[in-house]
Structure formats: structure tokens, C-alpha cells
Amino acid sequence: MTDSAITKIVIVGGGTAGWMAAASLAHVLDADRISISLIESENIGTVGVGEATIPPILKFNELLGIGEREFMRATKATFKLGIEFSNWGGVGQKYIHPFGDFGTDIEGIPMHQFWLSQRQRANYQYSLFDFSLMVKACQLRRFKHPEYRNPKSVYAGIHYAYHFDAGLYALYLRQFAERKGVIRYEGIVKDVQLDPESGNVKSVILDAQRKIDGELFVDCSGFRGLLIEGALKTGYNYWSEWLPMDRAFAVASEKVEDPIPYTKAIAHEAGWQWRIPLQHRNGNGCVYSSHFLSDDKALEKLLSGLDSRPLAEPKQLCFKTGHRRKFWNKNVVALGLAAGFMEPLESTSISLIQTGLARLMTLMPDKRFSETTKSLYNRRTIQEYEHIRDFLILHYVASKRNDSLFWKHIRGLKLPYSLKEKMALYEDAGRIMQYEAGLFTPSSWLAVLHGQGIVPKSYDPLTLRFPVEDVQKRLDAMRNLIARAASAMPMHIDSLQ
Ligand SMILES: Cc1cc2nc3c(=O)[nH]c(=O)nc-3n(C[C@H](O)[C@H](O)[C@H](O)COP(=O)(O)OP(=O)(O)OC[C@H]3O[C@@H](n4cnc5c(N)ncnc54)[C@H](O)[C@@H]3O)c2cc1C
Predict the structure, then answer these.
(1) Which PANTHER family match (predicted)?
(2) Is 80 a catalytic residue?
């Protein structure tokens, strides 16, 4: 066992993925036994976007023992309670996909089933979104930390994430990782040497003086996938037939108002725009399909949609939606953009880096690189990607928009079976089953399905054993509690200060 234990890990790339990998591996592995090196190039730089996260990021920081105040100060972060989707169900419509649940289950039956049955049985008029504390807090621009120590409190159910400057986060993690002994090399990887027998990556070459050997390689080199694709020719599964977005323009703009505790995602005729409030500025971007919108029009759309002065020249990013055929091939594990990419509509990329790292730590290999371990890693990761893919496609296909060639194209999409089944179950009786290895809970699915106007034909018959008057009282009590609790939360800006 000791002979085959890994002693040298090499991470190629120092963007968010590279430094998340370096910091967490250095934190959990024995620094006296394992050397961790990271290579990055300031000349190449990083992708320079990626500012909105989802709640699992809290766990990542917690694992590393990073305090929230220090982290937020260092990364200019704000709190995020959800995403507001505008013009998705139809032009002029709006809803918030909140983190956390809608109301509370009643005797094991999801709350929304009672809401559905009450609509049909008693013409119940209140909005389902009145049952989400996070939606109410977003509308009032309020924020409060969860009261974990008081599980009966309505505030125990608060879920949140952050908006932050990803470049500053990478820098923060770099300092953390270097303190833990990670060695950073500045330079461009010019060549990759493979072991002629195993086909594993043996070393990366920077220049005549610097050849860096390794046993386990983590490819965080961004879209180019220097090791996983450049050296190992792993191949890529393309998903543009379902998610046709392939470009974005991004630009930061001046802060004009107190930051709001949610991301904005505004659909347009061939894609959508994001607005992400940080402490000191807004992040903005226009995501589009180049088949349906020209670069010039997309840029115009981005700039005309800003609510303040841009702080730099907009940057264009081109991407291919999909993932590597294998995320772990030979002795190379790809993370971040080197592993795959799905548009940032639900802020999932950084979270996928985190789940990839968690899976790698659970399945930490030795030099034998067991095929069983790799195939389990790959199977689970593919499942996770596919479930996010389905969730993203839902935002498009649940829309009633038909006002442009792009939206007409969406109407004709042939859906993956997994999504078709999920939508059919909901349309039939409002049921939402949790995917195995799904990042998004049934509450998230409910927010989008309902928010975009899909109305189930029926509801769970188990609700029928509860008298209508009784349900009415319980729903009203929940709704009132949430309204009061939201109004009593501090303003987001005060929580930040
Ligand atoms: C338009 C857009 C919006 C996004 N928004 C979000 C969001 O809101 N939320 C979210 O979670 N994610 C988002 N993402 C994804 C997020 O930006 C990435 O997942 C994250 O930044 C990780 O990137 P990375 O580290 O994999 O790659 P990069 O940032 O590209 O880093 C690659 C690294 O590899 C190095 N490198 C490359 N080639 C070489 C070489 N030959 N030699 C040496 N070094 C090399 C580079 O110098 C760099 O350090 C978005 C992505 C895009 C495209």
C-alpha cells in the first residue's frame, strides 16, 4: 500500500478550478507525504467570469475552515437567495427561483400538493411563491443567516450562496494553498510527456529547465483541456442540440444602488442576460446562440441593457456545451472548464468543480489507478451533468415564447427521455421525483415548472384525506408566518455591513 501511494500531484491551471483543487487537496492530504504543484500562466490568464454560486459553496469554505467575514471582505461578496427570471415563461413575466423549500410538508406530503388541491377544491387564490421565505426576502431586499441552532424556527430553512469576484476568490485560495505548501510555477506548459507503456501522463514541460513530473494530474487548464484532450484525446459529448447557446459577452459596470440579494436572468430573443450585484460593482453578461443572433447585436443588447456605465471593454467568450467523454482518463482528472461546460443560467460550474473534488477525495486513487474507481467517478459525474442539463433545458422548453426564430426553434426540440418523464409527471399530478445525484432539489424544479406557467392537471390524491377547511388554516398559517418572518429580516445592505 505505501509503495503505491501517490506522492506527487500536479495541477495544470490556476483559475477558480485550479486553486479550488490546490486549496482543498492541500487541506485534506498529508503535506509531508504528498507534494502538490500548480502551474499557471499570467500571459494566458483565466476565463475571468463566474460570479454567481449556489449554496454548496458554503460547505466548501467550511471544509477549508474559511470564515465568512474574511472571505466576503476578500472577494467583495454579497449574499444570494435565488435567481429572478424575467421574460422566460413569456415576455413580461417574472418569477424567482429561490434556494430552499416552499412551506413545509404536511404529514410527509409536499406542501405544494396541498396548494394544488386547494386551488382545485376551494379556489385558493394565494401565490405559491408566498410560501417561500427566500422569495419574500428577495422581494423586500432582505437577508438573514439561517438559525441552524433553532431547528423549529422558520429561519432554520434559509439557504443562501454568494455573488463574488471569482478572480479575487482564486487569489484568496492561492494564498491559502501556498500557506499549506502548494508550489506554484509560473509559465506556459509547452509539452506533455506520456508514459509509453501505460499511456499515463508522466510530466509536463514548461521550458528547457523545467520539467515537472507527477503521478496524479488534475487538468484545470480551462476550455483547452491541455491534458485531458490535448494529450489524451478523450473526446467530447456535445449538447448543443438541446442547449444552443455558444457565446457570451461579459462586462462589469458601476454600482448604482445597494446590492440586491439575488441574481437576475433576463431572457431575450436568442438567449438571456445576467446581472450579478457585488459589493463594489455589477457583473453583466449576454449569453446567446450565434445561429440566431450576430455578435454585433449581442454586444448592443448587453450594452443597452446595462443600468450604469461599463467599467471595461466587454469580453467575448465562446463555448461548446457538453462534457468530456471521460472526466477521469488514465491518471488525469479534469475539473472546471477543462471537464465540460453548461451555460451559467443556474450558476452551476463552480459547484461542479466542488462536487468533482469531493468525489476525487472520496475515491482518492493510488498509483495503480483502478479502472473500477475511474469508471464510478465518470458514471456519477456524467449523471450529475445530465441532471443539470435537463434542468437548464427546462427553462427553455417550459416557456411559451414564440416571438423569434430562436424560440420557435426551441419549440421543436426533441427532449432527453429523463426530462420528458420529469415534465410529464409534474404535468399529470404535480409530482417531482428527486434525481439520484441531482444537484437541484424538487423545490428548485417546482420553482421553474410553476414559475414558467406549467399547470398540473391534477394533484396527489393523498391530500384528499385532509378536510378543505383544515388545509386552508394550515396554508394560511404558513403564509402569514413567512410574510412576518421576511419583514422582520434585516435589509441585505445592513447584513453586508
Ligand atoms: C460566460 C460565462 C459565465 C460564467 N458564469 C458563471 C457563474 O456565474 N457561476 C459559476 O459557477 N460559473 C460560471 N462560469 C464558469 C466559471 O467561469 C468557471 O467554471 C470557473 O471560472 C473555472 O474556470 P477554470 O479554472 O476551469 O478555467 P480558467 O479560468 O480558464 O483557468 C484556466 C487556467 O489554466 C491556465 N492555463 C491554460 N493553458 C495553460 C498552459 N498552456 N500553460 C500554463 N497554464 C495554462 C490559465 O493560465 C488559467 O490559470 C461562467 C463561464 C462562462 C464562460
Answers:
(1) FAD-BINDING PROTEIN, FLAVIN-DEPENDENT TRYPTOPHAN HALOGENASE
(2) yes
Read off the C-alpha cell for 465.
Answer: 384525506
Domain count, the chain: 3
Domain range for residue 34? 8-51+165-238+321-369
- Please name the helix (run of DSSP H) or strand (run of DSSP E) that holds residue 63, with its range, or none: helix 56-64
Distance 18 CA to ligand 1 centre (A): 9
Bridge-based pairing of strands 191-194 and 94-98 is unpaired
280, 346, 419, 452 from 77: Cα distances, Å = 9, 18, 34, 29
Pocket residue to mutate for ligand 1, from 221, 249, 342, most atoms within 8 A of Cβ: 221
> Does 469 share its domain with 363?
no
Task: Mark whether 423 and 332 lie in a shared domain.
Answer: no
Residues 296 and 433 in one domain: no
Q: Which residue is catalytic, options 8, 59, 80, 422?
A: 80
Tell me the pLDDT of the chain (497 aa) as tens digits: 568 999 999 999 999 999 999 999 999 998 889 999 999 999 999 998 979 999 999 999 999 999 999 999 999 999 999 999 999 999 999 999 999 999 999 999 999 999 999 999 999 999 999 999 999 999 999 999 999 899 999 999 999 999 999 999 999 999 999 999 999 999 999 999 999 999 999 999 998 889 999 999 999 999 999 999 999 999 999 999 999 999 999 999 999 999 999 999 999 999 999 999 999 999 999 999 999 999 999 999 999 999 999 999 999 999 999 999 999 999 999 999 999 999 999 999 999 999 999 999 999 999 999 999 999 999 999 999 999 999 999 999 999 999 999 999 999 999 999 999 999 999 999 999 887 767 899 999 999 999 999 999 999 999 999 999 999 999 999 999 999 999 999 999 999 98
Task: Tell how far the Cα of 183 is from the centroid of ligand 1, in angstroms.
Answer: 20
- Residue 52 sits at φ, ψ, to 5 deg, of -110, 140
